[in-house]
Amino acid sequence: MGRRQASRELKLGVERLFSYAAWTDKYEGAVHSPPFRNISLAMNEALGTVGVICPESAPLLGFLSLVLPLVAAGNCVVAVPSAAYPLIAGDLYQVLETSDVPGGVINIVTGRPLELMKVLAEHDDVDALWCHGDESICGTAQAIVGR
Which residues of 103-134 are buried (b: 16+ CB within 10 A; e: fewer)? Predict the structure, then answer.
């Protein structure tokens, strides 16, 4: 990864960080007035704990683009960062520890994505799995979840 690509990825990552942070108070329950004298209450509900396998390319931007929308929607996340550049997520973890993000909301586990994906897919406390990777990883995830 060159300096130009890293600089661009960081700039886009900060923009997405602000964008997803702004989402947190925009998708709350609201009362709608549908036709025919009815009333409808729209409630968005979090999934729970979501496992995320991040892509190899664009390690910082991919991590932020997958983890932050889930957190903004009220979910807890167990994220497996890019195996090629796991230290980027490790450095981000230091920022999260000193921020207002509650403990346990964003969990980062580094290692081999295929092995960790299997563990996440079979774990009883993981409610959803979001897998971004090559076809072998995604195909394995679909096979395990489909059982």
Answer: eeebbbebeebbebbeebbeeeebeebbbbbe
